[in-house]
Amino acid sequence: LPSLSLPSSMHLIQVDSVQRWMEDLKLMTDCECMCILQSKPISIEKDEQNELILSSQYSTCDNLQLLLKRAWIISTELTRIAQKLEKNRWQRVHNMTVRVNCHVRSMINEYNAFTRNSSEEMHQSEKLLIEKCSEFTAFTERCIQTEDEEILKSMKSCINETLTTVAQYFGQLIELVLTHEAQNLLGQIELSDSVYITESAISSLFSLTQEGAHLCRIIAKEGGVVTLFKICRQDCFRCLYPQTLRTLASICCVEEGIHQLEKVDGILCLADILTDNSHSEATHAEAAAVIAQITSPHLTFTQHLSSFLENMEEIVTALVKLCQEASSGEVFLLASAALANITFFDTMACEILLQLNAMRILLAACSDKRIVDTPYSRDQVVTILANMSVLDQCASEIIQGNGVQLLMEMLFEKSSSGNSAEVAACERVQQKSAVTLARLSRDPEVADAAIKLSCIPRLIKLCRSPTERNNSDSVLVACLAALRRLAVMSPDGLEDSDFEQLVKPRLVDSFLLCTNMEESFV
């Protein structure tokens, strides 16, 4: 079965056995009866034909969620049919084909009940899919009526071909439906001067972006970035800026979104918002989130952001100010994440940060547990410190801001919840704090401060005890590098066995030794 043209990250719907049984009961009814019942609209009074658009807006998001749920169920069923077909489970194949047929008809009827102005192309696509599903059901029904192995064998390739075609038609219909919905929502945003209608449409659009990268590409392709930046340039929609910017950040997780942002001078608009003190903190924070998204080091398509360099100094200045004045941990996280990404994006950013006393501001923020309250925030701070530590002037800033003490504390970073994302963040904090220590310890004053704070014993512990570093190889390599740098400054601070195993050999040999260590060795 070929891959379907569906949102790549469509949410999985967890259904327990009782719920699934109830779902199956509902679907085993006669197809025609089911579809006729579902397509009957609730009667309305004649004078209510010209209903306000607001009344339907409320349920648009729910209707789309229902559509996506149906789509996920159908794609899952098609995959399961392919698996049962391989095992020649003909009765199961037929039962599941009937179920898919019901789901497809229900999805089409449910969608047509709430959508407006569907295109002829969409109606044609619906017709093709229904016809092919009926043909598919007829094929599988013939299979359960015969036990002749030769006939079944000859029909199997035909059923496989039909299954592939059903999957293809289904994927095309979903693509058309989602494109149509994106166009409708963007049209409402473009044409409306009502804050309420625009807010509702943007909310529905944001919900679509949460369904995965594929939907973000569709929205970007249909001009979503252009439309949303128009909102961000109108004072009458100021109250919607945070919501609009949050939606933009989601769309810009894909290359098409960032290309569109560049074409409409989005960077300049974001810079204007960040530097305008009349905007709310929420607006500034969401603008910072867009900056963090488009400068993410994980993206491979940020090189074309030439206009970013032109506005970088004022953006960095505004982000540092936002970090300094942040009223909550979430605001600080968004601002510091943007700064951290920018330090990867361009080395000049580190020099600008140094001139702005950013290191002092970040170190001070870390002492406020209300602001820097999670490993994720500390990860952003230590990323900035690590990238700035390549500059010679950073050493004195670290000493003055009691930064060595902070880096030492970060070597003890542990997850309190055991959540996998938080554990990974803790590992990054440990690794980057060790990297920063290694880089800064070329300055004798920093190295001396680190030694006095007992950094060497902690680094040895991290090297020798896999559980202390959560079995992370990247943390081990960083700790070995930092330990070797400090050992040069204070060779007497190590036991002979530590020196012989962790410092004297080649780094790769020490690494292999530590990765093979048992806990009892400590």
- Unreliable sequence segments: 1-14, 28-58
Give the beta-strand count.
0
Radius of gyration: 29 Å
Spatial separation of the terminal alpha carbons:
53 Å
Largest sheet: none
User: How would you spell out the order of helices and strands?
Assistant: HHHHHHHHHHHHHHHHHHHHHHHHHH
How much of the polypeptide forms β-strand, as a percent range? under 5%
Structural class: mainly alpha
Put simply, the count of helices is: 26
Can you give the mean pLDDT? 84
Shape: flat
Helix proportion of residues, in percent?
over 70%
Domain Protein inscuteable homologue C-terminal: 70-522
Pfam families: Insc_C (PF19427), INSC_LBD (PF16748)
GO molecular function: cytoskeletal anchor activity
GO biological process, one term: regulation of asymmetric cell division
What report would you give on this structure?
- By secondary structure, this protein is mainly α.
- Among the domains are: 56-177, Nucleotidyltransferases  domain 2 (Four Helix Bundle (Hemerythrin (Met), subunit A), Up-down Bundle), CATH 1.20.120; 192-264, no CATH class; 376-521.
- It contains 26 helices and no strands.
- Helix 3 (53-86) packs parallel to helix 7, helix 20 packs across helix 21 (420-440) and helix 23 (455-464) runs antiparallel to helix 24 (473-489).
- The longest helix is centred in the first third of the chain and has 43 residues, at 149-191.
- It is flat, with a radius of gyration of 29 Å.
- It comes from Smithornis capensis.
- Residues 70-522 form the Protein inscuteable homologue C-terminal domain.
- Residues 13-57 form the Protein inscuteable homologue LGN-binding domain.
- Pfam families: Insc_C, INSC_LBD.
